[in-house]
Design a protein that fits this description.
about 20% strand; 13 helices; alpha+beta; 12 strands; about 375 residues; two-stranded antiparallel ribbon; single chain; six-stranded mixed barrel
Length: about 375
């Protein structure tokens, strides 16, 4: 093997300009993969965290399939309170309606909740762009999403009329503008739970109950316990809620995989082409080496070794660039009107996985020219044919 290493090193020194091109291509491909995967992780994790923080408990209780609302809310709340692992819960009412301001109307989603209970489960009411949050027992105030405020040209302190889905109307004062980074930013208004129950005639009813546990790992066990105690079958763990959110990211993941594939293909083709051209220019030398006793397998190892050498240097440079780029963008995310900001998140596995996959592609790309070099005919190669 000493002769293999010797010739591979000598050949690399003679062709260093060509090999620098390959190293740059591999480095760019590697850095590209790290940054893109970091962005996907940042986008996905950020969205999931926002969802869990504002829209979901560890366990979410829904009405049974045949029901529109959870009936007997008071009794069910007492049963939930009596469970040891339950840290807090928050009932909500959701309904359709319209928001009227001056001559403008907008269809809205009405979300009603109890501020005291909600604050123990989620941080939804803290997502305020301007103004103040909804206070406990504030039945005259409302929070509206920032997009809704922009569409209607309203601001904190303005009075708006909410038209409920049953036709009732009520004047509310805007206490604050809400910005969550989720779909509710489009057309949501938040009001007091008791006020919504009165306007919609939904006394002792709820659309959903969010339950927070002391230990989220017990959500599976408590899902079944709550189902038995409350006589409700439609109960979801936080993991199930996340699965539905993750499914919406499948298209983005497919697009990123396509971009990554193009980058890997570019790096692999660069390695293959350079080694192929190098072999064409060195056919006579290869023939002489075989004539003096170098085996086909040794010739093959020479070019595989060169590919590993180029891949190692390119991957190391790419890892450094990818790490630096990801950390910089993590500290300086792009502003986004919907999510608030878009930036990657760095994890060590990004480097490990990327390095392994890139090296595999490099070796596979070098396989054909390396095999071709090993099979070179001695006589034809020496004569330059």
């Amino acid at each position: 093997m000493s002769s293999v290493f010797f010739y591979a090193r000598k050949d690399a020194k003679k062709n260093w300009k060509m090999f620098i091109f390959v190293i740059i291509a591999i480095a760019i491909s590697t850095a590209n993969i790290i940054i893109i995967n970091g962005f996907m992780d940042g986008l996905t994790n950020g969205f999931l965290e926002k969802t869990m923080d504002t829209s979901s408990g560890h366990i979410n209780i829904y009405p049974n399939e045949q029901d529109k609302y959870i009936e007997g809310l008071g009794i069910k709340e007492k049963k939930i309170e009596g469970m040891d692992e339950v840290a807090a819960y928050s009932p909500r009412i959701t309904a359709g309606g319209a928001l009227h301001y001056k001559e403008k109307f907008k269809t809205v989603k009405i979300l009603a909740l109890d501020p005291l209970k909600e604050n123990e489960v989620t941080i939804l009411l803290s997502k305020i762009d301007s103004g103040e949050t909804l206070a406990a027992n504030d039945r005259d105030g409302t929070l509206i999403s920032y997009r809704l405020a922009n569409d209607l040209k309203v601001k904190v302190g303005d009075e708006v009329t909410i038209v409920f889905e049953n036709g009732k109307t009520r004047l509310f004062k805007i206490r604050g503008i809400l910005h969550t980074g989720l779909a509710m930013d489009a057309n949501t208004v938040i009001i007091n739970f008791e006020e919504a129950a009165e306007q919609l005639n939904l006394y002792n009813k709820a659309s959903i109950i969010l339950v927070k546990l002391h230990d989220e790992a017990l959500s599976g066990e408590y899902k079944n316990k709550i189902s038995r105690e409350l006589g409700i079958q439609k109960i979801k763990e936080w993991k199930q809620e996340i699965e539905s959110v993750l499914s919406s990211f499948k298209t983005f993941r497919d697009i990123s995989n396509l971009i990554i594939g193009i980058g890997l293909f570019t790096g692999g083709v660069s390695v293959g082409i350079v080694l192929y051209i190098n072999i064409l220019h060195k056919r006579r030398q290869i023939g002489i080496l075989k004539a003096i006793g170098m085996k086909d397998l040794q010739i093959l190892f020479v070019y595989i070794l060169q590919a590993v050498f180029l891949g190692t240097i390119g991957i190391l440079i790419g890892d450094i660039l990818g790490y630096a780029g990801t950390k910089y963008l993590e500290a300086h995310p792009f502003p986004d009107p919907t999510l608030g900001s878009l930036g990657p998140r760095f994890h060590l596995f990004l480097i490990y996985d990327t390095s392994l996959v890139t090296m595999l592609i490099v070796i596979l790309a070098a396989a054909f020219p390396a095999i071709m070099a090993g099979r070179t005919n001695i006589i034809k190669a020496i004569w330059g044919e």
